Amino acid sequence: MSDNIFYELLNQDSVFTDKSKISPHYAPEKLPFRDQQIKDLSLWLAPALKKAKPHNIFIYGKVGTGKTTVVKHVIDQLENFSKDQNLPLKTIYINCRNYQTKYAILFYCVQLFYPDLNFIGYSRSFIYDKFLTYVKENKLNFIVILDEIDKVKEIDDLTYTLIRSNDEIDIGSVSMIGISNNIFFKNNLDSRTKSTLCEQEAVYPPYNAEELKSILGQRVDLAFKKDAITDSAINAAAAIAAKESGDARRAVMLLLRAGELADLNRSTQVTDKEVYQAKEKVELEVMKSMVLTLPLQLQLVLFAIAQSSLKPKGILNLTGQAIDSNIIYSGEIFDKYSEICENYCEKAVSIRWFREYITELETYGFISTTISGKGVKGNTTLIKLGIDAQSIVDLLEEDFKK
Question: Strands 381-385, 367-371: parallel, antiparallel or unpaired by DSSP?
């Protein structure tokens, strides 16, 4: 028994006191630098305190800007208050990456409403009737939180159905909170849906280096032994994350992986050396996470760029000679994107929206662009992929199969 390797691991000294507190999934009780966002969201939900319908809310922002954490924080407090005051309120959180259709989302809600019953095989209309009946009979103010709402394939139909369900409810209401990384999301809704939303909107900004240092300092106190991590390590993690995207999760993951490296090397302290060693691994993890959470249309554009980058034609100068084999014309990408949309039975966006998506992908750091200049055939946007093309192709091909 004493030869069991887990005894050695159990007794091994560690720089951590509670590793879960430095996990990207941990939600601290206090959320630094999001006071205004918490206040705004609370005010928009406050009508529920008087048994009135809360606002429909859409929250946008890059990955790691605290969108989901803020929403869950405020919703938890709202639920606790409603229980204390015996208010008829119910909330459900749904990650739309796992539930991508109107039927799947309504089915999920109904199954939670009636946990002792099985609704597999019932029609859409039956599921909707059970959903509406539960809200009406319990006179609920029901709030559904749809994280990664842009992943829903029938978003207009779902949004319109949820909002217009209030026309059939005398006492109670149905409201929604949509969370998306795509600030252009609402623009893709049809006019009928937009006209009935009456929503509140918020865009969450990225964190700067000083804010990230403060966030990391809070986590370090919870997760690491005293003096087990140097100031230079915290500064390095904050600087790397701020430079890349202002992503708090990236900063937290850097310290987590750096701490694990210190444990692996049996070191008693985490320094900036471990942070920089962890950087490559974290960037790969973050890249995969960011790609998989992109809205579908952005994924399709990125997929087109990655596929084209595997066999680039290069750009040509006026003599007809290739001058950079890794750069692609935007027109070629649009043609490839249109072809991919057809293959996956998705409707391609207009060239105007395609340009917006190119700008968005550059903002995320996936690509770099420049306008072709003197000496190059044609006058167009030139695109260069900033990450490994084959990794993107493999990742998205697997994701599209789901």
Answer: antiparallel
